[in-house]
Amino acid sequence: MSGLSVIYWKELADYLGSRKFIILFLIVTLTAGTIIYVIHQSVSSDVNQFTGEYLFLKLFTFSAGTLPSFIFFVSFFGPLIGIIFGFDAVNSERSGGTMSMVLAQPIYRDALINGKFLAGITTIAIMLISIIVIISGLEMTVFGIIPTLQELFRIILFSLLSIVYIGFWMGLGILFSILFRQTATSALVSIMVWIFFSFFILMVANVIADQMAPLGNNASLELIAKNEGIRNMILRVSPLILFQECTTAILNPSVRFFGVTTALKNLEVMPSPLSIGQSVMVVWPQFIILIALILVCFAVSYVVFMRQEIRST
Amino acid sequence: MKTTQTILETKDLSKIYNGTPVVDKLNLKIEEGEIFGFLGPNGAGKTTAILMILGLTEPSSGEVSVFGYNSTREPLKVKSITSYLPENVGFYEDLTAWENLAYITRLNHIPEKVAEERIEEVLSLVGLTEVKDTEVGKFSKGMKQRLGLGTVFVKKPKLAILDEPTTGIDPQGVEEILKLITKVNREENITIFLCSHLLYQLQKICTKIGIFSKGKMNVMGSMEEISKKILTEKSNRLEISFNDAQDTSQLIDSIQRLEGVLKVEKRAEDISLERIYTKYFQEGS
């Protein structure tokens, strides 16, 4: 891969030195700090809500009052971070006139987007892992909870998952930066997609489910299940929902399934937490879809970019 | 005796966009050490032809070879011996001039020690040594263009393709750039492919000129060859200057009557802005 590492290091230096990185990092760190603080407050007022197994993991899924949990925070603002890193990756080079200069050097054309993509993923990974480490460290000092080995593995899995998830949004941003010549257009379109998958998909899913399986006053159990099934199927188009389901299962060992189940099925399960492998199995499909989404994004970017004309005018 | 080598050759090179040929069967041959002037109006397809030479765009038909390498099949080899200065050259604005050049050398796999020397060398060549640690974002258009030439020469190419290197530059800057181009051409034996629509510049420095319009190369050759082809009627001109006050009509009459005189014309002195400008800036300073 001629030139890939050169571009990778240059882009990484650019990302890490950019103002947007510093600002985002500050915001995310502050928010993480606030979350810990609020948890601390609510726990000290009522110790009972904070007992049981896997206490360390609970801190990531715990939502206190008005403030969302850390998972929700990542699932909701992660996309924004990804988009901010991706939306101007290619079109700013094109309009700045640097693209034709770089591509006139003896490198393969795909080295440019590969390098940018990898550098972006690395930046996101650095950001995310440092925040998770900060939170874990605070938890250990503030609450005195030490993670077990299993909890540690689950947190590592969660970090990987978050990187994949935010990486998807960055890939989407890069795709739009290839498709649209103006950085403003690519930014707006990326944000529109984000808003759609965060808010509107919920409405869309409800409307379609109610149309296909209308629930009357005394709807049968089958109908309710069908309605819920359709709703979930549509919701799972959204990477946001996929990520939330994945992380919920990974960080909460007692989660066994999503959606509606019969009471009988519930009775049959043992009320004990799952092992990591089993938790992963629960959300394996969601995880695969997330990976598939990122691959599709990248593949489309790749194909479009390779066929695009270089000239800036 | 030195034998010249063909640096660039195209055979029936064509590019068709949506049914219209942008470049139509271009046949070119450039020898080592030449300064080739690629002349043509805007939109003639010059840039497309260049992109095909570099292997950045695939030709619809025909072939290009640079130093024996096929541009379509071996673009990396071609790009490692060819430099290209795009028409609207851009740099990473938050990197310094030095860092921008260093990035280019790294992309060309030039070892760091060699690169450092070359960068210094090139910076002094284009006269940017004093501002080498300034961010390019603060550069003027002329400085950027000179830095652009720096990126071209820092990799010591065999062939340098310059697309409108003097657009948006003041006349004195143009002069400097042309001098620089001739200098590297002679001293470093870099073949120059200069693309422009400014005739005056081309005439000044080019050893060979091709006139390209609507995708076709109409004429190609040295200045004399071209003028022979295009200006078939050749005449010598004589200019005589007079004082304002003097009555010239009688004189014109008598000159007209001399044998061999084709035409006598009376014109007021050309007041060209160029003359004023060069007089003001060059002789004044």
Descriptive account of the structure:
The complex is a heterodimer of chains A (313) and B (285). Chain A is an all-alpha fold and 313 residues long. Chain A has one domain (4-307). Chain A has helices at residues 4-17, 19-45, 55-61, 70-86, 91-96, 98-103, 109-143, 149-179, 183-212, 221-235, 239-251, 263-268, 276-282, 284-307. In chain A, α2 (19-45) packs parallel to α7 and α4 (70-86) packs across α11 (239-251). The longest helix of chain A is centred in the middle third of the chain and has 35 residues, at 109-143. Chain B has 285 residues and is α/β, with parallel strands linked by helices. Chain B contains ten helices and ten strands. Chain B has helices at 46-54, 75-81, 97-107, 112-125, 141-153, 171-187, 199-205, 223-230, 249-257, 273-283; strands spanning 6-17, 20-31, 35-39, 61-66, 69-70, 82-85, 159-163, 191-196, 208-213, 216-221. In chain B, β4 (61-66) and β5 form a beta hairpin. In chain B, α4 packs across α5 (141-153). The longest helix of chain B is centred in the middle third of the chain and has 17 residues, at 171-187. The two termini of chain B are 44 Å apart. The interface between A and B is medium-sized, with 23 and 31 residues.
Short note summarizing the structure:
The complex is a heterodimer of chains A (313) and B (285). Chain A contains 14 helices and no strands. Chain A has 313 residues and is mostly helical.
Roughly what percent helix of chain B?
25-40%
Task: Give average pLDDT of chain A, whole number.
Answer: 84
Query: Could you tell me the number of beta strands of chain A?
Result: 0
- The end-to-end distance of chain B, rounded to whole angstroms, is 44 Å
Mean pLDDT of chain B: 84
Which parts of chain B are unreliable, with pLDDT below 50 for 5 consecutive residues or more?
none
Order of helices and strands of chain B: EEEHEEHEHHHEHEHEEHHH
- The counted number of beta strands of chain B is 10
Number of helical regions of chain B: 10
- Which residues of chain A form runs of ≥5 with pLDDT under 50? none
